Amino acid sequence: MNVKKTMLFAVALATVATTSFAAKSNPDLQAKEEKEQVAADPYEGHYKAPKSYGWSVIALGLATPVQLPWGIEKWDIFGLDLNIGYSDSMKMYGWEFALGANTARKCFIGLQTAAAFNFSNEDSYGVVFSLFNMNNFEFYGLSIDAVGYNRNVYGLEANLLGAMTDRTMGGLQLSGLANLVGEDMYGMHAALGANFARRVHGLQLALIYNQTDLLWGCQLGLVNMAFACDHGFQIGLVNVIMDNQLPFLPIVNGYF
Fold first, then answer.
1. 31-81 per-position pLDDT tens digit
2. Which one of 51, 143, 171, 182 is most buried, counting C-beta atoms within 10 A?
3. Contact at 8 Å (CB) between 81 and 89?
4. How many domains does the chain have?
């Protein structure tokens, strides 16, 4: 009797383990679950700032929290946040200025200017200017920097060296060396070096190299690479569309 119970328990355990492993190893199921999680909570996985203590129209100081009002990193600013070294606030609506770095722990609307670094954790609207600009959710506006990183960006981004967009870029992206878009690029990104995007809906323009998994539009560069092309064309010395009847063609290649 004990042997039978032991065997039944072992079979049940093996069945549960196999089902769990199959679910985890199924990429389609994983992708579906991830989409459902994002749809349920778009800020899932983000740092969530605590509730603000209050608000002020101005903050002045050396570096947060050494400023007036004291401990302003726990307050919202609707006006001017001016620090010599480092500015830190919750919601920031207005102008945030520092010689070092700026941080908005929640949403930002207005102007961020710093010598070294600008960061906003949630949706941002306006103009940011620094050596390195970073937004952790969605940015709408103008970003000027040496290096830029955004989860989603819509507008104009000008980067001295390069830019990385984790998910979606919509608008115009200009970089000295390279642009990388993790998911969808709508509009145009241009670089002296190279452009990379998972899906292109528009124009990739590079002096040396363009690459995408799926092309809907145009690639213009010395070397152009598309693993699939539903509607589009390539102009360059080397043009490759892997799912085309003629994968490689010099000068012009396309699929319509």
1. 454 455 444 455 555 556 556 667 888 888 787 777 776 665 577 889 998
2. 143
3. yes
4. 2
